[in-house]
């Protein structure tokens, strides 16, 4: 069950299906105002732990059982076969294949540009240190498939994994009730270099990749976004069993706008994240009442035309339009909220952007919709949510890499540095450490 955020002062509900309007909230109210809609976390964690325990103990049998329960799919085989993968290309339009290729090229270009250069550094004469970037050998990618088949997420995860040199790229995604995976997911997975694909979704997928089953290999690090169940499962398995990229849960966007912005664009940007899930949250921040009025009325117009408006309507219930006094307050609130996505549609967007310190990904100007980053501009759309942008980056090439340090010290080098090491070791009462140097100085 989703907990609604508590009501605040100065709140008006402009329209039943639209977001709350909050005018000049007191700073003491910002924290509760900015709270994300959360599930009842104790029952969420109980449910998720129970499923994870079953997966750990029973392996494939539990994976199949929970798949039947949640995805309504009765499967004989969890692994997607080669004929299924190859057939996917025949099921997609040429337009879609072309779009996937254009997006893939840009994502590849941007992530290749993040490559790490090895440099040897002589810290003391005769003491040479360097780092080498090595791709994580076995990675597990989770591709959401509950409310929409996010084949774009395949590109966002498998392309950097391939560039990083990951050898095994395992992909899990929930099947439909007939036991099939959306062909665009399969097509993108093959193109981007996934090495095996499994029809497993939700907590079962995270458990299977964290512990390994007879069919699904255990991986060293799990990546990818998902709903509250998936995010909770990733956080739980990361306590002991496997590394994870970051908490990437229900989508969110904050828009900063002034009167130079286009109300229709802003409404579309807000709805684009509201449509991801009932637990998404969208926030409009501005110093102009007129902007709020225009955007809310645009939302009503566009909502009426949305084919899947029920999801967006639910998300709007815990979304906010916030009127603030000045840009300083807007920036302070933004850095406190730490949105997954921040769109700045104001005349002085560069100046505002320079003051942003907490956000997953920032979109500048009236012609930069978040949809561009979601699909095809080249940046990664797997981003920290729920305020985690205060501490985490979104997925990037580094996420798939470990850096190993090396050092080589010559006879001259140990003479130059030896005394320093000996003194430090002795003062830490670690005499064998000291001796390892002393013997070499003779
Ligand atoms: N932060 C990011 O980078 C990012 C990127 C893309 C998508 N997203 C988010 O990913 C999410 C995708 O969610 P989704 O639901 O569409 O797909 P999903 O694949 O994450 O979740 C579907 C799975 O949830 C499990 N599930 C459903 N109900 C359950 C229950 N009652 N108990 C236990 N497990 C249950 C099922 O196993 C099902 O297969 C959305 O919230 C979206 O906003 C985030
Ligand atoms: N906005 C999502 C990240 O929060 C990513 C996505 C995938 N497809 C469309 N959008
Ligand atoms: Zn999106």
From TrEMBL:
<dbReference type="Pfam" id="PF00815">
    <property type="entry name" value="Histidinol_dh"/>
</dbReference>
<dbReference type="GO" id="GO:0000105">
    <property type="term" value="P:L-histidine biosynthetic process"/>
</dbReference>
<feature type="binding site">
    <location>
        <position position="341"/>
    </location>
    <ligand>
        <name>substrate</name>
    </ligand>
</feature>
<feature type="binding site">
    <location>
        <position position="433"/>
    </location>
    <ligand>
        <name>Zn(2+)</name>
    </ligand>
</feature>
<keyword id="KW-0368">Histidine biosynthesis</keyword>
<keyword id="KW-0560">Oxidoreductase</keyword>
<keyword id="KW-0479">Metal-binding</keyword>
<comment type="function">
    <text>Catalyzes the sequential NAD-dependent oxidations of L-histidinol to L-histidinaldehyde and then to L-histidine.</text>
</comment>
<keyword id="KW-0028">Amino-acid biosynthesis</keyword>
<protein>
    <recommendedName>
        <fullName>Histidinol dehydrogenase</fullName>
        <ecNumber>1.1.1.23</ecNumber>
    </recommendedName>
</protein>
<feature type="active site" description="Proton acceptor">
    <location>
        <position position="341"/>
    </location>
</feature>
<feature type="binding site">
    <location>
        <position position="374"/>
    </location>
    <ligand>
        <name>substrate</name>
    </ligand>
</feature>
<dbReference type="GO" id="GO:0008270">
    <property type="term" value="F:zinc ion binding"/>
</dbReference>
<keyword id="KW-0862">Zinc</keyword>
<dbReference type="InterPro" id="IPR022695">
    <property type="entry name" value="Histidinol_DH_monofunct"/>
</dbReference>
<dbReference type="InterPro" id="IPR016161">
    <property type="entry name" value="Ald_DH/histidinol_DH"/>
</dbReference>
<comment type="similarity">
    <text>Belongs to the histidinol dehydrogenase family.</text>
</comment>
<feature type="binding site">
    <location>
        <position position="227"/>
    </location>
    <ligand>
        <name>NAD(+)</name>
    </ligand>
</feature>
<feature type="binding site">
    <location>
        <position position="142"/>
    </location>
    <ligand>
        <name>NAD(+)</name>
    </ligand>
</feature>
<dbReference type="GO" id="GO:0005829">
    <property type="term" value="C:cytosol"/>
</dbReference>
<feature type="binding site">
    <location>
        <position position="433"/>
    </location>
    <ligand>
        <name>substrate</name>
    </ligand>
</feature>
<feature type="binding site">
    <location>
        <position position="276"/>
    </location>
    <ligand>
        <name>substrate</name>
    </ligand>
</feature>
<dbReference type="InterPro" id="IPR012131">
    <property type="entry name" value="Hstdl_DH"/>
</dbReference>
<feature type="binding site">
    <location>
        <position position="273"/>
    </location>
    <ligand>
        <name>Zn(2+)</name>
    </ligand>
</feature>
<feature type="binding site">
    <location>
        <position position="276"/>
    </location>
    <ligand>
        <name>Zn(2+)</name>
    </ligand>
</feature>
<comment type="pathway">
    <text>Amino-acid biosynthesis; L-histidine biosynthesis; L-histidine from 5-phospho-alpha-D-ribose 1-diphosphate: step 9/9.</text>
</comment>
<feature type="binding site">
    <location>
        <position position="204"/>
    </location>
    <ligand>
        <name>NAD(+)</name>
    </ligand>
</feature>
<feature type="active site" description="Proton acceptor">
    <location>
        <position position="340"/>
    </location>
</feature>
<dbReference type="GO" id="GO:0051287">
    <property type="term" value="F:NAD binding"/>
</dbReference>
<feature type="binding site">
    <location>
        <position position="251"/>
    </location>
    <ligand>
        <name>substrate</name>
    </ligand>
</feature>
<feature type="binding site">
    <location>
        <position position="428"/>
    </location>
    <ligand>
        <name>substrate</name>
    </ligand>
</feature>
<feature type="binding site">
    <location>
        <position position="374"/>
    </location>
    <ligand>
        <name>Zn(2+)</name>
    </ligand>
</feature>
<feature type="binding site">
    <location>
        <position position="273"/>
    </location>
    <ligand>
        <name>substrate</name>
    </ligand>
</feature>
<keyword id="KW-0520">NAD</keyword>
<dbReference type="GO" id="GO:0004399">
    <property type="term" value="F:histidinol dehydrogenase activity"/>
</dbReference>
